[in-house]
Prior knowledge:
Elements: H1 2-28, E1 33-34, H2 35-38, H3 48-58, E2 64-69, E3 72-77, H4 97-109, E4 112-113, H5 114-121, H6 127-136, E5 139-145, E6 152-156, H7 158-163, H8 175-180, E7 206-207, H9 211-214
Antiparallel strand pairs: 1-3, 2-3, 4-6, 5-6, 5-7
Helix pairs in contact: 1-3, 4-6
Amino acid sequence: MSDELFDNEEKLELEERNLRIIEALIFAADKPVSAKDLQPYLSDGADIEHLLKKLAALYENRGVNLVRREDEWAFRTAEDLAFLLRKEDEQTRPLSRASLETLAIIAYHQPTTRAEIEEIRGVSTGKGTLDILLETGWIKMRGRRRTPGRPITYGTTKEFLDHFSLSSIKDLPGLEELKGAGLLSNKLPPNIQIPVPFDGALRDDEDHLEEEDLQGKIVEEEFLLQNSVPNEEK
C-alpha cells in the first residue's frame, strides 16, 4: 500500500513539474507554441494534450487565459479585461467595407479565388484590397486552383484566429449567431445555409504555390468573370 502511495505521489510531482515546464515555455514564447514543440522538454510518456487542457483549466478564471489556436497554444489576456490594455492614443486605420466583406468571404468560403470573391460580392475586387489583408497577416495565399488560368486561392491564417479569439476556423459564428448579432437580416430565405470553410492543407483541386508566388512576385490572374461587374466599392 505504501509503495502504491509513493508511486502516486511521484506521478503527481512529475505532472506538476511538466505543467510548470509547459507554463514557462509558452509564457516565454513570442508566438503560439505547438504540442510538438513542447514534447521534447517533458518527461517520457507525458500526455501533452491532458497537460495542456489541465493548465488551460487552471488559467480559465485568471487575468490571462491559456488559449488554443488550431494546434498551437498561447497565453492571452482574458477577453473581459482586454479593454485595460488598449491605448487610448493608439490610432489604427479601420478596414474599408470592401476589405471587411472580402475578409468575411475568404473566411467562410476558403479556399477561394479572387474571381469567386467577386462573384459573391457582385463587384470587382481590386488587388489593393487583397494586398491590405495580406499585410495584416489575416489571410494568406494557399495555392493555385486547377482551373484555366490557375488562379491563386486564399485562406485565413492563425493570426486571424488569434485576433478574433477563435480556436479553429470551425468556431466562426453560424447562421443563428450572425442573426443574433444583427449581422444578418431575419428575412433571409428559410433554406439559406452558412458555408463550412475548408480547414486543412491543400485540397485535391489545389496545387502548391510556385517559387515566384512565394517570393511575392504574384503573376496577374487571367481568370476573368464572364459578366462584367461594377467598380469596387470604397
